[in-house]
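job 3f2a | input accepted
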Amino acid sequence: KVNHSFDENNFIDTFYELVPTNDNFEDEIRKDCTSEKLTDKSLPDNIHMFVDMNTELKINLISDFPEFSFLSDADQRRKVIRLFSEKKEAKNFASKNQKIMKVPNGKIFMKVSHFLIKKGISRIFFDNKLYSI
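job 3f2a | predicted structure (133 res):
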């Protein structure tokens, strides 16, 4: 469908209506291109995270983050830890039985990545980005 209209200088602007396709796309086959690879430069110094009272990592699933609801079921079950740049921001997400812990060097997550993977943690959520370990 083409619509023509005249602007104030009598030039013709043409608008095209795009019809959506009815094709079915398989979400299960979708490639995980939503995460960036974690590098030494991905995380800044002085980040915050919350842990439980026994100082165990607070582990989430990607399904806990609605902005990634379009990912496949397998990706939704991936374990992720959440990091924050500000202590105040971390407090907004921590529950009463959790405490905020300051991490003075973000590069530590690269150094301990093999331990995180052994615990089943394959992603880090920081600054609205998802990083793969």
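job 3f2a | Residues 27-32 have pLDDT under 50 and may be disordered.
job 3f2a | closed
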